[in-house]
Design a protein that fits this description.
Elements lengths: L20 H22 L7 H8 L5 H33 L3 H4 L2 H24 L26 H23 L7 H20 L3 H27 L9 H41 L7 H32 L12 H4 L3 H9 L16
Helix pairs in contact: 1-9, 3-5, 3-6, 5-6, 5-8, 6-7, 6-8, 7-10, 8-9, 9-10
Length: 367
C-alpha cells in the first residue's frame, strides 16, 4: 500500500486529545473533500461494486480465525441456553419475580454478565494496561501505520475481536429467536450487521486497534442498561415484598446510563474517534487503503444509530419526570410480547394475587 501523505509530527495535522463539534465538522469537511480529490488519482481503476468485492476477496482472514469465531458463536448460544435454563430461571423463581418481568429477567442477566466481562477486559486493555494511548491521544492509533504496512495484531486486541465478533453473530440469532421483540429489534438487527461488517473489514485490513476502541466506547452503556433493568425487575416480588434499595439503585444506574450514553457515545465517540478516523485517517492511513471510505461511512452510520436510540432515553426521562413512574424499557411493544398475556389482564391478575405462578407464561413476538 502507498504510505500515508503525512506523519503525526507534521504541523498541518490537528492533534488534540478531544476536539469540539465545530472543529470536527470543519476538519471532516476538509478531509472528505481531500479524500474525494485524491481517491481516483491513487486508484484510477476503482469501480463499485466490482473493485470492492475484489478488495474483499484479498482481505487477510485465515480459516482458523473463521472457525474460531463461528465456533465461539455457537458456544455463546449454547452457554446462553444453559445459563437461562439452569441459572437465570431458577433464580427468577427463587426470588419470586412477577410474571410481568419473569421472561425478561434471563435475557437481562445474560447480557449483564457478558458486558461486565467484555467491557471490564476492554477497560483494562485501553486504560489500565498502559500499552495503548488511544483514549488520551487518539491519533496515536496511526503511529504503527507510518510505513504503510499493516501492523501486527496484539493478543489482547485479538481476544477482543474474536469474542465480540462471535457475540454479534450469536446476537443476530438471538434477536430473531431468543430476545424479547421490541420496537427497535429490526434496527438492532441492522446494528449487529453493521458491527459485524466493521469488525470483519477492520480486522481484514489491519485496523484492529481502531475497532477495539469503538467497542470500548460503546459497551459500558449496555452494561449500565442491564444493571438498571435488573434492579427494577427484582425490586418487587410475588410475595408482596418490596426492596427499596433496589429501587434506589435502579434510579441511580438509570441516571448513570443516560449520562454515560451522552459522554461516551455522543461526546467522546465523535470527538475522539470520528475525529481520528474520518479526519486524521485520510492523512495518516495508507493513501490507497481499500476500505477506508466504507469503514468511515459505517462509523458515521453507527453514530446516527446512537442518536436514534438516545431519543428513547430522552422520552423515558420525560415520562419519568412527568409521571413519577419507574424508568421502563419503552422499546417494548407491550407485555403481551413478553408474557403472552395482555397488560390489562396482568393488572387484573395482580389485583387478584394470581401472579405467583409463572410456569404458564410464554413469549410471543409482537407483530
Amino acid at each position: 500500500m502507498l504510505p500515508p501523505e503525512y506523519n503525526l509530527t507534521d504541523p498541518r495535522i490537528h492533534r488534540v486529545s478531544t476536539t469540539d463539534y465545530v472543529t470536527l465538522v470543519r476538519l471532516c469537511y476538509e478531509s472528505i473533500g481531500h479524500f474525494l480529490d485524491r481517491f481516483y488519482k491513487v486508484r484510477p481503476d476503482y469501480r463499485f461494486p466490482g473493485t470492492f468485492f475484489d478488495d474483499l476477496s484479498n482481505i487477510e482472514i485465515s480459516r482458523v480465525d473463521i472457525f474460531l469465531v463461528f465456533g465461539l458463536a455457537v458456544f455463546w448460544t449454547v452457554i446462553r441456553h444453559f445459563f437461562t435454563q439452569s441459572i437465570s430461571k431458577p433464580i427468577a423463581e427463587w426470588w419470586g419475580i412477577p410474571m410481568l418481568h419473569f421472561h425478561k429477567f434471563p435475557e437481562c442477566l445474560w447480557k449483564f454478565v457478558y458486558y461486565a466481562l467484555a467491557w471490564g477486559f476492554s477497560f483494562y486493555v485501553h486504560i489500565l494496561s498502559g500499552k495503548y494511548r488511544t483514549f488520551y491521544d487518539p491519533l496515536s492509533i496511526w503511529e504503527a501505520w507510518a510505513s504503510g504496512e499493516i501492523p501486527p495484531v496484539n493478543w489482547d486486541i485479538y481476544v477482543i475481536y474474536v469474542t465480540q465478533c462471535a457475540f454479534y453473530i450469536h446476537s443476530i440469532y438471538a434477536t430473531l429467536y431468543m430476545d424479547i421483540w421490541r420496537k427497535d429489534s429490526m434496527m438492532m438487527f441492522f446494528h449487529h450487521f453493521i458491527a459485524l461488517s466493521l469488525i470483519g473489514l477492520s480486522y481484514g485490513s489491519g485496523h484492529v486497534l481502531e475497532g477495539a476502541f469503538v467497542l470500548f466506547l460503546h459497551d459500558n452503556t449496555d452494561l449500565l442498561l442491564e444493571m438498571t433493568k435488573l434492579c427494577f425487575y427484582t425490586k418487587k416480588r410475588t410475595n408482596e415484598e418490596y426492596y427499596r434499595v433496589l429501587d434506589v439503585l435502579g434510579n441511580v444506574f438509570f441516571v448513570l446510563f443516560a449520562l454515560m450514553w451522552l459522554i461516551f457515545r455522543l461526546y467522546w465517540y465523535p470527538l475522539k474517534f470520528l475525529y481520528t478516523t474520518v479526519y486524521a485517517g485520510v492523512y495518516l492511513a495508507p493513501q490507497d487503503s481499500p476500505f477506508l471510505h466504507v469503514i468511515g461511512l459505517m462509523l458515521v452510520t453507527l453514530q446516527l444509530m446512537n442518536i436514534y436510540w438516545f431519543n428513547f432515553i430522552v422520552r423515558m426521562i420525560v415520562r419519568v419526570c412527568r409521571t413519577g413512574e419507574d424508568p421502563e424499557d419503552n422499546r417494548e411493544f407491550d407485555t403481551e410480547a413478553v408474557s403472552g398475556i395482555p397488560r390489562e389482564q396482568l393488572k387484573q391478575l395482580a389485583e387478584q394475587g394470581q401472579l405467583h405462578s409463572v410456569n404458564g407464561a410464554k413469549k410471543e413476538k409482537a407483530t
